[in-house]
Structure formats: C-alpha cells, structure tokens
Amino acid sequence: MAEVESISHSGLRADDVRQVEEFWQSVLGAAHMHVSSGNAYLGHGGTPHPCALLGDYLFVVFPELKGATLSADGQLRGGPESYRHAFSVPRARFEAFLAHLKEEHVPFEGPVEHPHRGPLGESVYFKDSAGHFFEVCWRRDEDVEYSAVMVGEA
Amino acid sequence: MHPQALPNESDERPGLAGHASRTEAFDTRARVQRFSHLLVGVTNLDRSEAWYRDVVGLDLLGRDLTAEPRAHSVLRMNTGQLVILAENPSFDPIPRCQIHHAFMLTPNQYRRAAERLRQLGHEIGDTHDGHRAVGEYSIDVADPDGHRYQLQTYGPEAFQVMPGEGVVDCGPAERYAVGDVRAFKTGNFFLVRHKDGFLAISKWCTHMNGMTVYQPHYWQFWCPFHDATYDRRGMPQPYPGNRAGGPLRVHPIVFSDDGRVLVNTDEIAEDRTPMALAAGVR
Predict the structure, then answer these.
(1) Which of A105, B165, B175, B265 is least surrounded by Cβ atoms within 10 Å, i.e. has the fewest?
(2) Size of interface A-B (CB pairs under 8 A)
(3) pLDDT (tens digit per residue) in B68-87
C-alpha cells in the first residue's frame, strides 16, 4: 500500500482565466466551482482564483498577468519540460472522446498505444488555451478495484 | 492558528473537502471519467524516483511502462492514480509561483509523513499556516527539481461539533435593536436580533470548522476559508457552489428573570425558531 491516496488538486496559472475555464468546460466537461478569494481577506495576500472540478479532480487557476503560455505553438505532446495532467475514460468511450476533440476542433496527437505490461492502454495528447498539456487515455487496469477517490458532498 | 500540529488519528480517507467539495450543481457532464496521472519532468530519474517513493510514499510500479519516449518511472497511489517521472536533463525548474499539486493523505498517513519528513531532515512548513480551518492540515514540500507539492489531509476534528464554553450572559435583551448582530468570542457565536426574536448562531462553519465572520454590507455570514455563506438566520445562501455544509448551528437561548439573554453554547438547538422575549423559553 502506498502512503498517499490521491492527488486532489493542482494550482495552475493562466493569463486568460476565463478562456481556460471555457476550454475545460467545453472540451473536458469541467464544472465551474467558484471564485475563491478567502485568503485575501485572511491577510495572506491570496489572489481570487476560480476553481473547476473535472471528474474527481480539482483545478484552481491563478491569474498570471505576465503571460503564462507554457509551450511552443504546434507542440501538442509535452510534459517532460514541465508537467502534464492525464485523465482516463472507459475504453468503450475512448473513440467517442476522440470524435469530440475533432468536433471541438482541438488539435491532438495520437492515439498512441502503450506497452501491454503497463497500466495505460492508449492516449491522445493536446493542450488547452494557455498551453497546459493534457492527456486523455483509457487504462488497462480500469477493472481493478482501487480505493475510491473521495469527493466530498457540500 | 491550528490548535494542534497533527490531525487526530484516523484511517478514514478524507473527501476532497475544502478544496473540492462536490456541490449539488456538480453533474455528469464531465467527458473524462477520472484523474489518471500526473507526468512531471525531472533531471535525474534515480534521484527523483527515490524521493517520490521514500519521501512522499508512493508505490513504485517500474520503469518505462508507458509510451513516453523518455526514460521514466511509474509510481502509484492507493486510488490507482499515477505519478510518472520523465527524465529530462535539460528541465528548467519552474520559477516559484502558485503552480503546485496536492497529495491527499488519510490523517494517519499524514501523521506518518510528518514524522518521516522530520526524520529525513525536511522542514515542516505550510505557507498558509494560521489560515486554515480547524482540522485542515497541509505540509509544503518540493521535489529535487523544485516541483511544489502539498501533503494534505482533513482530520476528523474538521467535521466535529466544536466544544462550547457554557452559558454566556449576553446582557439585557432591551439593549439589542432589531437588525443587530453581535459577535461573542466566548462561546464563538453571533447573537442576532430579528423582528421575531433572538437567534444564537454558532460561528463554526458547517462545511468544515472554519470560523465565519459577519459581513454587514451583505447581511450574511461568510467563511473566509472556503467561501461558504449563510443568511442572518444561519441558512446557506441559495446559489450553486455554496460550500455550506448545512445551516449554521444554533444554541438554545433562555431569558433570565430580569430580561438578560443567556446562551447555552454547550448545546445545539433543534428548533431554529427565534426566541422571543415574551415566550421566555423556546
């Protein structure tokens, strides 16, 4: 057993927060959460930032006024120079997700097949409007019963 | 400040709680099912693999198990989520900024992680120390290349009713005009004078145990920790995404023979009807 259950969230930067959120909502189906500004009140200098819930994961986006484009134009598959977030879909829905990317006119690379000895099946790679790298895959271990990712009910 | 540095013991897996409580507005629109993995660039695979395994506590599955063209390690968490370390000797550390990722631990995993970090000589720190709700814990760590992480958990005390401080004498009822909201530090409650009587509303947010404040310009109570809001009767404001975990708790009120307002902060009242002076006892 690992000593960690999950990754619960990531804090990212974007120079156009609304545009990024729209991308996540339209392409990935993220749900807008709220704009958090509590830390500013608490005297911690926090920047109001929107949150987006995507599946069982949360993104918080911090406004970056100096420009936050992370990757060169045309590069769709990245990560080793920074980081990349990957989400899974059931294998049976993978083709439908590819079709959705095409409908949304999102350039992507792949699908790429992974080695059979590993946990991943196939992946496609793309990036959002701020240049954050994303990957969507199906997993060979999708029928394995891992501990559930707990998502609290508000 | 936190009343304690470590959570109470528990092996319960916390929900995403503060940072990602699912709301009623959450739906099944997500086109992706679940988070699969985070890939990060590292300059030295051996060094980083050891750090994620031995410091963070991830299970090492093996190397080069995916189609990632660079040499890489795959590590797993108990939910099946993965961290993939891709070796990139020319990786430039990301300048210090808000970019970070957060590992979620059980309270007991968190306690062990804190001890492990101390033994390994890591400084235990939290950039938001003093700005977290009761029961909310976080340690800031950085991997050998400067990727920033939080090790987080929510102890059971985050969701327990906070202890009261006995009966608090709020003074003569006649001193309160309709519309008054007075905060009491002893017992941590607001005494609200409504047209139809008094309500003693606990300050403790029902989402987690953050302490709410009264915002007179908005006529509401607000939890600055996770932005839950409540109206002046302690009811959650009705908008999607409000993180209120339910109505703010109310304490029973009685009036002394000479008309003083007495609030019993040790008890939670079932009846939320404001207490009118003439009624004497609710």
Answers:
(1) A105
(2) 278
(3) 999 999 999 999 999 999 99
